[in-house]
Amino acid sequence: MEKVVIIGSGCAGWTAALYTARAQLNPLLITGVMPGGLLTTTSIVENFPGFPEGVDGTDLMMRMQKQAEHFGAKTRFGSVVEAVDLSKRPFTLTVDGEKLQTQCLIIATGAGHKHLDVVGEHELEKKGVTYCATCDGALPMFRNQPVVVVGGGDSACEEATYLTRFASEVYLIHRRDTLRASKVMAERALSNPKIKPVWDSAVTEVLDLQQGKVTGVKLKNLKTNAERVLPCAGVFVAIGHVPNTQLFKGVIDMNEGGYIHRKQGSETNVQGVFVAGDCSDHVYRQAITAAGMGCAAAIDAERYLGNLNQ
Ligand code: NAP
Q1: Which domain holds residue 174?
Q2: From ligand 1's centre to the CA of 13, what distance in Å?
Q3: What is the pLDDT of residue 9?
Q4: Which of 134, 150, 208, 310 is the most buried (most CB within 10 A)?
Q5: Catalytic: 232?
Q6: What pLDDT digit, counting tens, does each position of 34-84 carry?
Q7: Known active-site residue 132
Q8: Under a CB-based contact definition with an 8 Å cutoff, are residues 147 and 213 in contact?
Q9: Biggest alpha carbon distance in the chain?
Q10: Of 208, 237, 266, the domain-final residue
Q11: Exactly one of 56, 132, 200, 208 is catalytic; which is it?
Q12: Which ligand 1 atom is nearest residue 174's CA?
């Protein structure tokens, strides 16, 4: 029987593990299939306090893990939670076919990449369509070739800027005529001579299914309805995220987008189940806010367990 199980190994999960470990609750953290979470798909993180020169996303996550484990957090790598029974305490989780019980649960499952859902996108994934410039940008298939980045947020600007190291030109396709990205990221992208913004436009199809690789995208101008084909070797989709909360549907209250509702602090509608990070936050979605929420969930869990044992 565990006292605390944490699902998810992003900033929220590791911070919850650090705090619950220091509270001597001997937490078990289940990493999920993407240890370190989405931050491991970014390059330099420049906005995490304490790192004036910036810090590599993967490095930051490994440091968090090391710190939590130093205080006694247990890690279960690569495991997937297949089912949860939160109808009675202790809660039961099915992990890799095995059942384990816990007195309390912290959900820190983060978010995954949003898809365009156009013809060719899924079929040509890994054949030119990707969701992570830092993971795939340096691949030979993109070197000295034109590529497109879809989106207008910080991710799209960051990815476009990064891709200028490898691609001959980077088309930044955005559905409006102003970027959502923060000023500093937007200016950095738009001032780069290799980045060519394509405003008011949507990708309606990724080409070419017959050739089995990306050769271009079909674009539609949303103001004029004009359509054209833009030749490119890669499509980097950076249009935001969807919370990883399917496992809890029908049990834990969430909004229409699947983000888990927080009641007071990090409490969910099920007593003893707490939530932290991007799976419950569609507003801030920062490494530092996720870490703060992980800390809050750990403190709430500690208080909850303290009250149970009184
Ligand atoms: P985001 O801020 O939600 O931006 C998503 C972008 O994709 C928006 O421009 C949106 O258009 C567009 N979009 C959404 N759905 C679309 C669709 N179906 N088709 C076409 N375009 C679509 O997401 P994000 O850029 O991933 O950023 C998420 C959070 O992480 C933000 O808080 C951001 O500041 C942070 N972040 C920080 C850094 C950094 O500081 N290093 C790097 C990356 C991300 P509209 O603008 O029209 O809505």
Answers
A1: 115-237
A2: 23
A3: 97
A4: 150
A5: no
A6: 899 988 876 678 889 999 999 999 999 999 999 999 999 999 998 889 999
A7: yes
A8: no
A9: 69
A10: 237
A11: 132
A12: 21
Question: Separation of 175 CA from ligand 1 center, angstroms?
Answer: 12
**Atom 18 of ligand 1, residue of closest alpha carbon:** 116
Domains in the chain, number: 2
Q: Are residues 99 and 12 in the same domain?
A: yes
Residue 208 appears among annotated catalytic residues: no
In the structure, what pLDDT confidence band is assigned to residue 304 with cuts at 50, 70 and 90?
A: very high
Query: CA–CA separation, 28 vs 2, rounded Å?
Result: 7
Check pLDDT > 80 for residue 310.
Answer: no
Q: How far is CA 53 from the centre of its chain?
A: 23
Active-site annotation holder among 11, 59, 117, 135? 135
Could you tell me the CATH number of the domain that includes residue 230? 3.50.50.60
| More confident: 72 or 137 | 72
**Both structure tokens of 214:** 């990306």
Please tell me the total number of residues recorded for the chain in this structure: 310
| Pair 119, 90 in one domain | no
Query: What whole-number distance in Å separates Cα of residue 26 and Cα of residue 9?
Result: 16
Q: At which of 222, 237, 252 does a domain end?
A: 237
Retrieve residue 197's tokens.
């913004």
Q: Are residues 119 and 233 in the same domain?
A: yes
Pocket of ligand 1 (CB under 6 A): 42, 45-47, 114, 116, 150-156, 158, 175-176, 180, 182, 238-240, 285
Identify the three-state secondary structure at position 204. Answer: strand
